[in-house]
User: Fold this.
Amino acid sequence: MKFKCIIPILIFLIFLTGMSTVSAHGVDVTDDIMIITDEDNAIETKKIVDSLNLDIKVYKFTSVSDVEHQLEHAKENPNKRILAVAFHDTVNKFIKANPSLSDKIIVVGSTESEINQGLVKLNQSANNDNENIDIDYTTIVLIIVIVGLIAGFGLFLLKR
Assistant:
């Protein structure tokens, strides 16, 4: 009688742990290392990145709200690195509101030398963070729960 109740609960827990979390403002589909530009400097910035043979995507934004949305993803994604060549007021306001992200978001001018210096800083910060593999608490708990469920289900099968 007890086992008839355990199986649906176990199935429910497996489905519950299998669901992925999505933030309220959507899933980030952009690359972890990116450059924010506008219509005035997108082509020049792309040429500089290509001339340095870097695998960094250049994104051209047309509105402040799109840039703010993208900056919000930097709060959630610990691997996100942003070089802002445009929308300086918006990015600086965001950094002032979120000072812990100042090492992940770099603001530079639109000249070639400033973009080159920003790319060097961006690559250095990305390389420094790749040395430390951080796993957040929820991921560890989720892994422990899944392993526990599998082990419990295995013990259940062995007893039968």
Remarks:
- Strands lie at 33-37, 57-60, 81-84, 105-107.
- The helical segments are 2-18, 42-51, 64-76, 88-97, 112-130, 137-159.
- Residues 137-159 form the longest helix (23 residues).
